[in-house]
Fold:
Amino acid sequence: MTETLLDVRDVVVEYPLKGFRKEPFKALKGVSLDIRPGETVGLVGESGSGKTTLGRAVLGLAPVTGGSIKYRGQEISKATRAQRKELSHEIQVVFQDPYTSLNPSMTIEQILTEPLTVRKVERQAANKRVAELLDQVRLPHGAAHRLPREFSGGQRQRIAIARALALDPKLIVCDEPVSALDLSTQATVLDLFIEIQERTGVAYLFVSHDLAVVRHLSHRVAVMYHGEIVEWGDGEQVTGEPEHPYTQRLFMAAPVPDPDRQAQRRADRLRLLDIQHQQNVQAGVA
Amino acid sequence: MIDTSIALPTQAAKVSLFRKLLTNPTGAASMLILALVALAAVLAPVLATHDPSLASLQSVLAKSGPDHVLGADSAGRDVFSRLLFAGQFSLAGALLALVVAVAIGVTGGLVAGYYGGWFDSVSSWLTGLLMAMPGIVILLAARAVVGPSMWLSMMIFGVLLSPAYFRLVYACVTAVRNELYVDAARVSGLSDFRIIGRHILTVVRAPVIIQSAMVLGIAIAIQAGLEFLGLGDLNIPTWGSMLNDGFINLYKAPTLVLWPSLVLGVVCIALTLLANAMRDELERSRGPVKRRRKGAALVDAAEAAAKRGEPAVVHPEAPADEHSGSAGEILLEVTDLGVGYDQPDGSTTHVVNHVGLTVRRGEVHGLVGESGSGKTQTAFSILRLLPQGGRVTGGSIVFDGTDLARLSEKEMTKVRGQRIAYIPQEPMSNLDAAFTIGSQLMEPMRVCLGISKAEARKRALALLAKVGIPNPERTFNAYPHEISGGMAQRVLIAGAVSCEPDLLIADEPTTALDVTVQAEVLDLLRELQDELKMGVILVTHNFGVVADLCDRVTVMQTGRVVETGPVRSIFNDARHPYTQQLLEAILEDAAPRGPFTNSGPLTSSATLTSLTGVKP
Structure:
């Protein structure tokens, strides 16, 4: 019953650097995690930690040079274009920037029917599907014939979500989907993510730098640092009582929206840094 | 919980390029001329009064008259008829060159730009080679080899023109290749062919059309040049060969050279003007979308009046707590501030209305709001650094006794930097990549404080150490690209406090930074503020940052202040619905999602048809 939807094992991603015989840049240094159907796995980390690269590797947009990525037992890290086309039914994506993830010269209808045309869905059926999708993301049907530039950031992100849902995928890779949005828009879009998951049973690989967002959405959380997963487990535990020193630092660095509690956390953080520093010194001495 | 305003804006009318050109006087005129010339060429068999190649000894160099409308050439052929038929060959030849150039250049540019790799290297090298070769020499050489065929030489010329397209398309493609929507199309399983057709060609289309109008003009001119030199096929009439004939007989029949050169000139000018008109129209449509309807000024005035009627919630001063800041003397008092942008139609769009703000010495004042709330505009108007077209439309900004809104630009320059400093959101884009960190720190100090270079250097090193940079000497000599974003922000903070300002305006100073770096920068700001007793205006959207640093908070929404007060009153006792809404949207205290239970989401959705394939 605990079937695994996506199984990532020891994945290495290397980008070749310019210059003769230069060592390639290792964006991922052997990363492992798994996602079950209907589950949200959060991936937290700071810039350059490799969290986005892992999402892109799952999508086939980053060069996997080691390890394996299995989707329902089938190896997909070396999938050909034809296999990828089959997978587009299963794995989809919502990107961070709602301004560049939609082609500015295509209408919303064209954007939403694009994945369907690959599937050779008939025009009438496609139009019906567009209406369904707009309903799902709570946009009026009148939106179909407009251009992306006529929408706000939050509305555009809804369109991007609708596009990801078009083929009824089982897994959506969400790459910082709310970081470009305002606070209140962010909250409604996150609620939409949860609602869609509860309705359709889709699984999310949710990439974000924001611990609070990930905690709110994820059943399990992986913390990345310098191309490796340093902590991985139950969301409540990882985001509430982290064990790894880096996760602890990350957790303590996020300011709390309350002056008095933040003063407390600030003091705790400085104490933690002090302890970790001493431990490092001792380790160095020993 | 939160108002999901999904009201759609009014639909922007989509007008085709052709329609837009018709309304553009230059575009319409040039299209008309080109259409007439093309029509005349097509209808040449109907319109011509004579066979264009029929020589007649009686009418050699005949003047214009009833028999020959525009006279006859040195072989007695009718000039008017030749002009019409020559149009067919000249235009067809130029079109051939264009088609060849587009076919090679656009295809090559698309493939090289999209796939890169070896094809990219080889084709870029070939393009460079072609561009280095002198076109006319090649055409002359080709004629010597293949004989006087206009079609062949135009095809060769097409190949010579192809680099222009290759480079244009290549640049466009590499610019969009890594756009996220192309990635999204890949994930959707679209074939490369389809991605290029749907997403990339649309970007390339407009510049290629513009380029084509230009290239067509060049092709016609070059072709005429070759024929004029007598290098063309003498059996077919072209404008160039007519020019040649006219030139030879320039003294005997001066009008002979006039007609072909007139046609050539008019066609080339029309093509160039058409290209310009197309570029103008296409670029105009890419400009910012005008959101305001007609009569925006009127509506604004009404809105402003309505807004004025609803006063902001003002919390009473907290009884003197440990934050002594709130009792300090008033440093900055903004009253009734309005900021507006002049529109092309003469009206003014108001982005900030009746904003009031008080900052005391030694106090950190948070300016909070979402995008479009006017918080950054308010901060910039205090610095008098509003973007082009923006101006303070009303109210006063009294800083330490002087109204900044009424200072001259020269007086303001003295205030800026020395007494009011600024920390930007994007540290990297605010450092000049061409100078070392050290020189960028020393320059303002030498100007503002009038100190020597050696002393400025000493102070700069001390400042870098003070803002927590581990190796000041090395950073001092480094260029901006050699340091991280967090370091760059420390450098900018060092620069901002270098002249010991009274007021520091920080515009989202930690938004672009990682959260662990943000914590360090916030610590640094707090230390410096304690030490220098500055007033600080902190523009931010992050309530965590507000809680960490601010003594007082002003919440802004759509250009006006909705609530202001001591930080604890705002967090614990927000009264305005908008503030409450913002505070509710914060996720820090929201419940975690909890462990995954397979039964929960799946059984509840098992009735849905879309659930095929998920086994509960």
Notes: The longest helix of chain A spans residues 259-285.
